Amino acid sequence: MNIRLTLDGRPVDATLNDSPTARDFAAQLPMTLSLRDLNQAEKVADLPRKLSTSDAPEGADPEVGDLAYYAPWNQLATYYRDAPYATGLVILGHMADGGAEQLATAEEITIEAAP
Q1: Which residue of 23, 54, 60, 70 has the fewest CB atoms within a 10 Å radius of its CB?
Q2: What is the pLDDT of residue 44?
Q3: What is the pLDDT of residue 98?
Q4: Is 92 left (phi over 0), alpha (psi -120 to 50) or beta?
């Protein structure tokens, strides 16, 4: 599924994968969330409700530009730098080129289905 992220007013295209967790996330769209920096590698935001982790792997090794769900804390995690493997992390999708650079300084994210 194609989605549109708006980072502090600047649009970035992204794609969600076809996992049950990503489909559950898409069902909550649109949403606007406040971002906080974590470990100078990712921006995180609390989600309004828990997502399904049915058939999800035990964890994941995120890449720059990934959108992910961190199940233990019910958070959206978005990566602008490399980060290590994390148990409980489920990759939801990936931002288009250039999105990670915009994410590094963003304080708010709006996520919606792509027009």
Answers
A1: 54
A2: 98
A3: 84
A4: alpha
Q: How confident is the model at residue 97 (pLDDT cuts 50, 70, 90)?
A: confident
Average pLDDT of the segment spanning 72-84? 97
Alpha helices in 27-68 (DSSP H): none
Say how far residue 64 (Cα) sits from the centre of its chain.
11
Cβ contacts of residue 39 below 8 Å, gap of 6+?
83
Q: Return the pLDDT at 115.
A: 81
In terms of phi and psi (left: phi > 0; alpha: psi -120 to 50; beta: otherwise), the region of 83 is beta
